[in-house]
Amino acid sequence: MNSSRITFTLNELVYVLNSAADRHLRANFDLTYSQFLFLVTLMSQNKPTPSFLAECLGVSRAAVSQRLPWFQDRELVTVSRVSGNEKNLSLELTRKGEALATQSADFLEKEFRVLFQNTDSVDLDDLDKTLRRVKQLLFRNRELRNAA
Amino acid sequence: MNSSRITFTLNELVYVLNSAADRHLRANFDLTYSQFLFLVTLMSQNKPTPSFLAECLGVSRAAVSQRLPWFQDRELVTVSRVSGNEKNLSLELTRKGEALATQSADFLEKEFRVLFQNTDSVDLDDLDKTLRRVKQLLFRNRELRNAA
DNA sequence: CATAGTTTGTCAAGTAGTTAACATCCATGA
DNA sequence: TCATGGATGTTAACTACTTGACAAACTATG
């Protein structure tokens, strides 16, 4: 078969899903999808440095540095120095930020459950497993390991 | 299961694949992945208007309009008016543009075949079919139909 | 201890997209 | 026929990223 066809299919599917997530988040939480990812990723870590968060998000340190003021202005994230360490910053969700991250994640989860409820003919657990398998297999490849 | 997990898996897989494609294209053809998509999409249509090409690429008309000079400067694409139609422009690959699109697509196809050659334990045809099925099913949903 | 190297965070400049506004061209129907 | 409405292509201003350069702060080694 045409082996690049599957990459197009994947891209299309991801586009549809991310667009849906973005619309839900904008409509209900005044949040873009990428702002949502920022908050959720930050929540999943324990007071990360900007540098580490950048790595988790797959963007540059500069990108995180530039976006921080937006979250600080809205009192969603606090930036602090750890005493005895003049070099690294420490990022943390505020109570408000944590509430927003949790609520929006729960909401999205519920929406996707509805979205997927009619896909009876497809075993989604199975599909997830297969996709992870493919990712793992591709990852064995030295070229790809360097990318991520 | 956590139904949003699959969306993360999909995003990660797409990121890995697109990064690999981008690196191959830059290294071998001085082309970014999105420039490649521009050329390949243009090639797959018969002298489309910028507006139609934008729709195919899933970007705005403004984006296509802004990028056209880059391709014209490199003599990869010609922009012309159809006589008797003062409104629409007509886009076409030059001979050089067509050669580049064809060669880079063939190259990428070959590389992905190598990449996928060790995924014996996964039936990629089957996976592609399943992904298309999921996309179809989600598409039934009125909300998503409006997005794409 | 000094110093050479590494990591971090930020800034500046560049790229690729967006939306909104606009002029222009074409089609359509009163 | 002509006025109006819709689609097209361009521009301007904005957003979110990139890379490269940099200073400051740590780390490790002679």
Describe this protein's structure.
- The structure is a homodimer of 148-residue chains.
- Chain A is mainly α.
- The first copy, chain A, has 2 domains: 5-117, Orthogonal Bundle (Arc Repressor Mutant, subunit A); 121-148.
- In chain A, 69% of the residues lie in helices and 7% in strands.
- The first copy, chain A, has 7 helices and 2 strands.
- A two-stranded antiparallel sheet of chain A has the order 1-2.
- In chain A, a hairpin with a 7-residue loop joins strand 1 (77-81) and strand 2 (89-93).
- In chain A, helix 1 (5-29) crosses helix 5 (95-116).
Q: Specify which chain pair forms the largest interface.
A: A-B, 52 and 52 residues
- The quaternary structure here is homodimer
> What do the pLDDT scores of chain A average to?
89
Q: Find the CATH superfamily of the largest domain in chain A.
A: Winged helix-like DNA-binding domain superfamily/Winged helix DNA-binding domain
**Which structural category do the helix and sheet elements of chain A fall into?**
mainly alpha
Report the CATH topology name of the largest domain in chain A: Arc Repressor Mutant, subunit A
The CATH class of the largest domain in chain A, by name, is Mainly Alpha
- What's the domain count of chain A? 2
How are the strands ordered across the major sheet of chain A? 1-2
Poorly predicted sequence stretches spanning 5 or more consecutive residues of chain A: none
Termini separation of chain A: 27 Å
Percent helix of chain A, as a range, is 55-70%
Question: What are the main properties of this structure?
Answer:
Arc Repressor Mutant, subunit A; two-stranded antiparallel ribbon; mainly alpha; 148 residues; 2 strands; homodimer; DNA-binding
